[in-house]
From TrEMBL:
Gene Ontology MF: a single term: phospholipid transporter activity
Name of the protein: ABC transporter permease
Keyword Transmembrane helix listed: yes
PANTHER family: ABC TRANSPORTER PERMEASE PROTEIN-RELATED (PTHR30188), CONSERVED HYPOTHETICAL INTEGRAL MEMBRANE PROTEIN YRBE3B (PTHR30188:SF13)
Organism for this UniProt entry: Mycolicibacterium hodleri
Length: 289
């Protein structure tokens, strides 16, 4: 009997763990390749989706924007994103006014709101709201279709499942995120101003002076670019986990959890790398203005 056979018979768990550890780099590369194939296929099928599945695309645009069922009653994704960004803008004003007041420069709260909302808070908050509503719903929906063999039925009928289910959602998310994020930025701006002027008593003129002075149009434009990138990544991530869900209803729940964790990490990484690329060497503002 060989040494390997003896070790397997005496220490089966340790040997199995060692084999899993040794094969982890290969499994990691295999998963990266599988994800890359899925992304390339989904993006490459956008033209096919535009040609054959325009009605489904329009339906998804309406569903992502306003929701369905009970979610539509409260305003859908628009209401959720608006409420979350409203809360985020208020918190920025509260923390900014209190922290700046400690050194006697609470007049700079408008500057703080213009800087943090556009560059950090609004992209992160809007991305998280999108992932928690639209993304998680897409994962659950596609996962349910997978375990009930509906996706296999689409393939049997000659329908390209990735184009019909993933590319259409990708385009719908791209279309919806632009007006959705515009509303999110406006809500965060209004919340910060209302909190500072109404609750803390700062004059509207002082707040608007520093806010308008330090709000740069190119920062707003780059913020929209970040939101679009985040929406594409979130939709691809959630569709991937839902499309390849397995293990019955429990597997669908696990897929939703994994997709949410991946989306939360991806959102922060996108904002981090964008901030490093855009503002890492030059913050693009001068407090002596």
């Amino acid at each position: 009997m060989s040494t390997t056979a003896v070790l397997k018979s005496r220490f089966p768990r340790a040997v199995a763990g060692g084999e899993r550890l040794a094969s982890s780099p290969a499994r990691f590369l295999d998963s990266i390749g599988h994800i890359a194939w899925f992304v390339v296929t989904a993006v490459g099928s956008i033209g096919h989706a535009f040609r054959y599945y325009r009605k489904e695309m329009l339906r998804l645009v309406a569903e992502i924007g306003m929701g369905t069922g009970a979610m539509a009653v409260i305003g859908g994704t628009v209401a959720i994103v608006g409420f979350v960004t409203l809360s985020g803008g208020s918190l920025i004003a509260i923390q900014g006014f209190a922290s700046l007041g400690n050194i006697g420069v609470e007049a700079f709260t408008g500057f703080f709101a213009a800087l943090v909302n556009v560059r950090i808070a609004a992209p992160v908050v809007a991305g998280q709201a999108l992932a928690a509503t639209v993304g998680a719903g897409a994962t659950a929906e596609l996962g349910a279709m997978r375990i009930s063999e509906e996706i296999d039925a689409l393939e049997v009928m000659g329908i390209k499942s990735i184009s019909y289910l993933v590319s259409t959602r990708l385009v719908a998310g791209f279309v919806v995120i632009i007006p959705l994020y515009a509303m999110a930025i406006i809500m965060s701006f209004l919340a910060a101003q209302a909190t500072t002027t109404l609750f803390y008593g700062q004059s509207t003129g002082t707040y608007e002076h520093y806010f308008r002075t330090f709000l740069r149009p190119d920062d707003v434009a780059w913020s929209f670019v970040q939101a679009i990138i985040i929406s594409v990544i979130v939709m691809l991530n959630h569709c991937y986990y839902g499309f390849y869900a397995s293990g019955g209803p429990v597997g669908v729940g696990e897929a939703v959890g994994r997709s949410m964790r991946a989306s939360l990490i991806a959102i922060v990484l996108v904002v981090l790398f964008a901030s490093m690329a855009l503002y890492g060497t030059n913050a693009n503002f001068n407090l002596t203005v």
